[in-house]
Design brief:
Layout: H1 2-15, H2 23-57
Length: 64
């Protein structure tokens, strides 16, 4: 999902015509897409880190 948003933002910026007065809309859309992708990625990393930490806190019981 993150890569799709970043690719879309990149495409919008490449295809925007800077001579047109509505170019700010394309830039705004690209920025919102990129920020959404970054927020999603940060949330995913936090969830993965919490899951990894949880596994470390509960080691498997073994016969000694």
């Amino acid at each position: 999902m993150c890569l799709v948003c970043i690719a879309f933002a990149s495409w919008v910026l490449k295809t925007a015509n800077p001579q047109v007065g509505d170019a700010w809309k394309a830039v705004l859309l690209a920025n919102v897409s990129a920020l959404s992708a970054i927020r999603y990625l940060r949330k995913y990393v936090k969830i993965e880190a919490a899951a990894g930490e949880k596994k470390l806190n509960y080691p498997a019981l073994t016969d000694s």
